[in-house]
From TrEMBL:
Species name: Nepenthes gracilis
Transmembrane segments: 15-34, 89-108
Protein name: Uncharacterized protein
Domain of life: Eukaryota
Keywords annotated in UniProt: Membrane, Transmembrane, Transmembrane helix
Length: 113
């Protein structure tokens, strides 16, 4: 008489499920730690990025039209940015105000509650 054996596809599925769950939990813990470290490292860059944008716009607007960068943007004239209206200092002031408001947001929310 033949003895019925269990299918090999259903053997050990609780163990496999536990291993997969463990991998997800460990992956989440590592992901959270990596993201916290990245946020700490990128915070200074995010704080000075508005200034870097203003400097880049100023640098690009004062470049001569015969520069190699003008080959990347055909048909652009360096003085077009000044004809569009506003000054780079006005843009810098607006970005500074936004930066200050974002920086003091936790303080304002904490004092209101």
């Amino acid at each position: 008489m033949a003895v019925a054996t269990r299918s090999s596809t259903t053997d050990g599925w609780p163990l496999k499920a536990l291993v997969i769950l463990l991998c997800y939990v460990v992956g989440y813990i590592i992901y959270a730690a990596v993201m916290a470290t990245a946020a700490e490292l990128l915070q200074p860059l995010l704080m000075i990025s508005p200034l870097l944008i203003v400097i880049a716009v100023h640098w690009l607007s004062t470049m001569p039209s015969s520069s190699t960068l003008s080959l990347l943007f055909p048909g652009t004239i360096p003085t077009d940015i000044h004809r569009a209206g506003g000054s780079p200092w006005g843009v810098a002031l607006v970005l500074l105000i936004v930066f200050v408001l974002i920086s003091f947001q936790p303080f304002v929310h904490g004092s209101m509650s």
